[in-house]
Amino acid sequence: MKILLxxxxxxxxxxxxxxxxxxxHEVVCSxxxxxxxxIEQFNSDKISVVEVDFLNVKTLKNIPEDINAAYYLxxxxxxxxxxxxxxxxxxxxxxxxxxxxxxxxxxxxxxxIVNEQExxxxxxxxxxxxxxxxxxxxxxxxxxAGIIVGSGSGSFEIIRDLVEKLPFMITPKWLHTKSQPxxxxxxxxxxxxxxxxxxxxxxxxxxxSKEILTYxxxxxxxAEVRKLKRTIICLPIMTPKLSSYWLYFVTSTSYKLASHLVxxxxxxxxxxxxxxxxxxxxxxxxxxxxxxxxxQKIEEQNVVSSWTDAQSSKKLLKGVAKLIEVPKYGxxxxxxxxxxxxxxxxxxxxxxxGGETGWYYGNFFxxxxxxxxxxxxxxxxxRGRKNASDLQVGDSxxxxxxxxxxxxxxxxxxxxxxxxxxxxWLEFKILNNELHQTATFRPxxxxxxxxxxxxxxxxxxxxxxMIKKLAKKQ
Length: 474
Known about the structure:
By secondary structure, the chain is α/β, with parallel strands linked by helices. It has 13 helices and 19 strands.
């Protein structure tokens, strides 16, 4: 089958691609920016990529008409705090209208469980998208999931941050809300299983494990898997706004996502029985099994995708191509060159920078900058990186985004997603057995210039120390 995969750069989309290819399907990946997605990593001649923005009708013509099925995995929850519902409605409408001009027979939509009378804005928007898609002239299959548990998933990383950083937690009362989590492995099995399955046409199915757990129970069971002792006290006085700030500062999530999550976590998400798992012969994993499998992937450095993959600053939404050429004029630069002792070792160090490894020199100051960034609503350093030794274009790396990562050209280029009065790039490049390290800052107005001069004294020893650590043999 020829399959259109929307949301191909997202958490689920990236994991679905190799499974579809293994099953012999031809996969057309729909992305907003080709430069942030590399099909070479999949090593297949049955994959192609088209550049489409479902908020822009003109770009839909890039989608081939001869597709057999499509996955709709587009969500705008993390991109906007106020108008994500409208954005999701526009995207769904444009998708539905164009699909009716193609040969598509089935559309598979991954949604959220919507079995409560009063829904959060997030779940209400998902339900509205389902209604829009159901009005199309194709067979719609909707899979409704609650908390998805897997390495790199938003919920997994938030729980991980809370459990591993806080031995004692004073938490909001919504931790008593019940949910039915599901392992990401099971989600993928359902997504593959319903493809072309006529029984699932024009139906919706709640998918989840057989366990019903409160968020507090999930935190405590997570702690058990990690062999940690944790104490949790729930208080009724924490407002949604306070809860959002609590999640934002303690975990790696953005404030926008924290706000939507808190809004959703007040609503119980319990599956309605449907027997789909039995029909598809899917063995549902328990919550503890899902957590254990996630850490197995982390330890193997085999995290395929992360919730941060689809996150980015508004400037990046305009396209990587506009940022990958570092500006030369109207900028401040810190440029340094250091002779390399061992080129291979230096490349390995560069590709391992950030995250748990740190920045090789002045980590205290990097951490302080991350903390200040968090205070001003930025990403901070808590996003880390999904793989300790490998980088791909589009990956998040602490408060940076990877624009170019080529060991062939020996170049790593990062773009700052921290809160700044301007734009910043950090480039590492090896030429003639020398490491060229360049920090570029394009200031915005007087404030941008004042910012550069205020941090200039720190650059003097931080960047100098970093390049020496990278270039010298250990």
